[in-house]
Amino acid sequence: MLGDCDYCGDPLTNELQSVTCDHCGEGFHVECARDAGEFSVTVESKLLGSDNYRIVCPFCELSWTTSYDPR
Protein backbone atom coordinates (compact mmCIF):
# COMPACT_ATOMS: atom_id res chain seq x y z
CA MET A 1 0.00 0.00 0.00
CA LEU A 2 1.34 3.40 -0.98
CA GLY A 3 -0.56 5.51 1.58
CA ASP A 4 -2.39 8.79 1.08
CA CYS A 5 -1.39 12.14 -0.41
CA ASP A 6 -0.43 14.62 2.32
CA TYR A 7 -2.12 17.42 0.34
CA CYS A 8 -5.48 16.05 -0.81
CA GLY A 9 -5.80 12.91 1.32
CA ASP A 10 -6.58 10.69 -1.68
CA PRO A 11 -4.71 7.39 -2.05
CA LEU A 12 -1.34 7.39 -3.79
CA THR A 13 -1.71 5.17 -6.84
CA ASN A 14 0.22 4.16 -9.89
CA GLU A 15 -2.42 5.84 -12.10
CA LEU A 16 -1.60 9.33 -10.77
CA GLN A 17 1.99 10.46 -10.60
CA SER A 18 2.87 9.92 -6.95
CA VAL A 19 6.12 10.56 -5.12
CA THR A 20 7.29 9.33 -1.73
CA CYS A 21 10.26 11.04 -0.11
CA ASP A 22 13.23 8.72 0.33
CA HIS A 23 14.14 10.50 3.58
CA CYS A 24 10.99 11.31 5.59
CA GLY A 25 8.59 8.88 3.90
CA GLU A 26 5.90 11.50 3.22
CA GLY A 27 3.96 10.87 0.02
CA PHE A 28 2.17 13.22 -2.35
CA HIS A 29 0.78 13.58 -5.85
CA VAL A 30 3.05 15.69 -8.06
CA GLU A 31 0.05 17.73 -9.24
CA CYS A 32 -1.06 18.48 -5.65
CA ALA A 33 2.39 19.70 -4.61
CA ARG A 34 2.66 21.75 -7.82
CA ASP A 35 -0.79 23.31 -7.23
CA ALA A 36 0.34 24.26 -3.68
CA GLY A 37 3.46 25.90 -5.14
CA GLU A 38 5.67 23.54 -3.14
CA PHE A 39 7.07 21.25 -5.84
CA SER A 40 10.72 21.70 -6.77
CA VAL A 41 12.45 19.64 -9.42
CA THR A 42 15.59 20.41 -11.39
CA VAL A 43 17.41 18.60 -14.15
CA GLU A 44 20.58 17.23 -12.62
CA SER A 45 22.03 15.77 -15.80
CA LYS A 46 20.88 15.32 -19.39
CA LEU A 47 22.28 12.17 -20.88
CA LEU A 48 20.87 10.26 -23.80
CA GLY A 49 18.43 7.76 -22.31
CA SER A 50 19.42 8.38 -18.69
CA ASP A 51 18.37 11.86 -17.58
CA ASN A 52 18.52 12.52 -13.83
CA TYR A 53 16.19 14.84 -11.93
CA ARG A 54 16.57 16.20 -8.38
CA ILE A 55 13.38 16.46 -6.32
CA VAL A 56 13.22 18.55 -3.13
CA CYS A 57 10.74 17.24 -0.57
CA PRO A 58 8.19 19.92 0.41
CA PHE A 59 7.99 18.44 3.92
CA CYS A 60 11.56 17.79 5.08
CA GLU A 61 13.33 19.81 2.34
CA LEU A 62 15.88 17.08 1.70
CA SER A 63 16.39 16.05 -1.90
CA TRP A 64 16.93 12.90 -3.90
CA THR A 65 17.61 11.95 -7.50
CA THR A 66 15.30 10.03 -9.80
CA SER A 67 15.77 8.85 -13.36
CA TYR A 68 12.19 9.62 -14.52
CA ASP A 69 10.81 13.07 -15.26
CA PRO A 70 8.49 13.81 -12.32
CA ARG A 71 7.18 17.00 -13.88
Which properties best describe this structure?
5 strands, 71 residues, Znf_RING, zinc, three-stranded antiparallel sheet, two-stranded antiparallel ribbon, mainly beta
The percentage of residues in β strands lies in 25-35%
- Gyration radius over CA: 12 Å
Write the element-wise H/E pattern from the N-terminal end onward. Answer: EEHEEE
Give the CA-based shape. globular
Mean pLDDT across every amino acid position: 83
Arrangement of strands in the largest sheet? 3-4-5
Describe the biggest sheet?
3 strands, antiparallel
Number of helices: 1
Low-confidence stretches: none
Structural class: mainly beta
Present the secondary structure layout.
Elements: E1 18-20, E2 27-29, H1 30-35, E3 40-45, E4 52-56, E5 63-66
Antiparallel strand pairs: 1-2, 3-4, 4-5
Keywords: Metal-binding, Zinc, Zinc-finger
Domain RING-type: 5-61
Protein name: RING-type domain-containing protein
Folded structure, characterized:
Residues 5-61 form the RING-type domain. This is RING-type domain-containing protein. Keywords: Metal-binding, Zinc, Zinc-finger. It comes from Haloarcula onubensis. By secondary structure, the protein is mainly β. It has 1 helix and 5 strands. The strands form 2 sheets. It has a 3-stranded antiparallel beta sheet, with no helix packed on it. The chain has a two-stranded antiparallel sheet with strand order 1-2. The longest helix has 6 residues, at 30-35. The chain is globular and about 35 Å long.
